[in-house]
Amino acid sequence: MICYELYMVEKRKYASVAVGVSSGGLYALHTLLSSLPKNFPLPVFVVQHLSRDADQILVEYLKRKTGFPIKQAEDKEDIRGGTVYLAPPDYHLLVEVDGRSLALSKDPAVNYARPSIDVLFESAAAALRDSLIGVIMTGSGADGSKGLRSIKQHGGYTIVQDPASAESAMMPQAAIDAAEIDEIAPLEELGGVLVKLAQIPADRRR
Amino acid sequence: MNDSRVEDIELELLCEAIFRRWGYDFREYAKASLKRRFQSIMMRRHVEQLSELIPLILNDEQFFAECLESVSVSVTEMFRDTGFYQSLVEFVFPHLSTYPFLKVWIAGCATGEEAYSVAVLLKEAGLLERSRIYATDFAERALDVARSGIYPIEKLALYEANCQATGGRVRFRDYCVEKYAAFAMREDLRARITFANHNLVTDGVFGEMQLVICRNVLIYFNQALQNRVISRFCESLCDLGFLCLGSRESLRDAEGVKLFRPICKTWRIFRKISSASPSAVRAP
Fold first, then answer.
1. Is A110 on the interface with B (CB under 8 A)?
2. Which of A106, A119, A121, A122 best tests the B interface by mutation, with the highest count of B CBs <10 A?
3. What is the helix (H) or strand (E) element at residue A191, kind and residue range?
4. To the nearest 5 percent, what fractions of chain A are helix, strand and coil?
């Protein structure tokens, strides 16, 4: 069941955002989160590729710089709108099948990554289906391509950072090659795209 | 009905089939991670639907044994999460040294690396001789590896580095013997560890322990099962005994919060503050 009622009074077409970015994408992530208004209503799940011994400094930095409620996801944490959940180092982050909470896993690395973007995106796609927006940003490798395709297959909205202006074009390009993409946008415009999507009302027949 | 919902039904039926046929209960496992594990099995077997695994699970014992391994085995390392081991020594060991005899339960020990790491630290602290470590898992093949205490030589360098990172004077090489393409943990460590088959979901309370360590196992259980298992840990612990969870695991349930006091928030080390009788625990 998709739980619109958890975090919305007005029904929206899109209820969550999932973002994937590589280890070098701190600037991109910071830019994206800074460009969201403080009252951005949707939960945002983020996998940034991390070294397994990465510590909390990154989270603190992003919180300070963006003023956004940003936290490292806990196992079984309830999903709340307007919060940014970062996958912790050395765990996979998943959305539980009922779409209400987050789950962690210590299963082996996927695409040499733990946390892996594919793992987040595939679980989120199955749970949240056409209410999910998926975003792939700068990075190397192809982690996230399969996941973005899965988001599209389940009816979600797919966005890729424009490879032409991305610091590292590999991941965005791999996603474009693998999946049907709804929108390609340069980094500075991604936040605006998300804000517009968050305002689209749900179809009346829901 | 959309296909995700159909998949969820298939997963439930698969777990029901496993439980009725083989007695292993995955019905209260966290579904997202369990589904993903079965999906890798599906890919290996070139199977399109989860439900196609059901006849195989029911009729093919060998296939079931392979599934069980895929769903249960987690890869661990000696002294993984050096901060946890440092905190164990700093916050827990000083209290353990006040007991004449120590019982330690490592739940979900897999291939044994955590058990041996704890044994090494107890030895360094002069506590091993008074300790008995019970290391349990329901995966028999992993337990066989753990009992042998033999690990591939390729891992030795990593384990040495992990161990060194805990600080102190512990040298991992002092505690093992190199043998051909492998190394074996020292006999005096192995002598203090009992590796036993025990299923956290279906089996009962285990002993009266001063220390229970269960790290990154509860993430695979749903909330209800996690709460029951934590209550079991509480029953297993003596008053003022210690419980150690994985670094992103919490005592989410109200009962768990009442039964334990946090000692180290970063590494999820808790201390039992009250005795919970089974009836008190089951109260709504």
1. no
2. A106
3. helix A187-199
4. 35, 20, 45
Cα B141 to the chain's mean position, in Å? 15
Q: Among B35, B36, B216, whose Cβ lies nearest the Cβ of A106? A: B216
β partners of residue B261: B271
A39 bridge partner residues: none
Which residues pair with residue A160 across a beta bridge?
A: A136, A184
How many helices (H) and strands (E) in chain A? 6, 9
Task: For residue A84, give how far its alpha carbon lies from the nearest alpha carbon of chain B (Å).
Answer: 16
- pLDDT at position B276, please? 53
Residue A56: pLDDT band with limits 50, 70, 90? confident
Neighbours of B199 (CB within 10 A): 15
What pLDDT does residue A205 have?
A: 52
**Over chain B, what is the mean pLDDT?**
91
Q: Are A149 and A41 spatial neighbours (Cβ–Cβ below 8 Å)?
A: no
Between CA B117 and CA B108 the distance in angstroms is: 14
ipTM: 0.91
Q: How many whole angstroms separate alpha carbon A111 and alpha carbon B260?
A: 39
On the question of a cis peptide bond just before residue B94, with omega within 30 degrees of 0, the verdict is: no
Collapsing DSSP to helix, strand or coil, A170 comes out as helix
**Per the CB < 8 Å rule, is B250 touching A108?**
no
- The half-sphere exposure of B22 on its side-chain side, counting CA atoms within 13 A, is 21
Identify each DSSP E strand in chain A by its residue range.
16-21, 44-48, 70-72, 84-86, 92-95, 102-105, 132-136, 157-161, 183-185
Beta pairing partners, A57:
none
E-only strand ranges, B202-248? 209-214, 237-245
DSSP letters for B66-81 = HHHHHHH-----TT-S
The single-letter DSSP state of residue A74 is: P
Beta bridge partners of B29: B221
What is the spatial distance between Cα A85 and Cα A76, in angstroms, rounded to a whole number? Answer: 12
Mean pLDDT score, A72-98: 96
B269 phi, psi to nearest 5 deg: -105, 130
* Closest listed residue to residue B40, CA positions, set A60, A1, A96, A107: A107
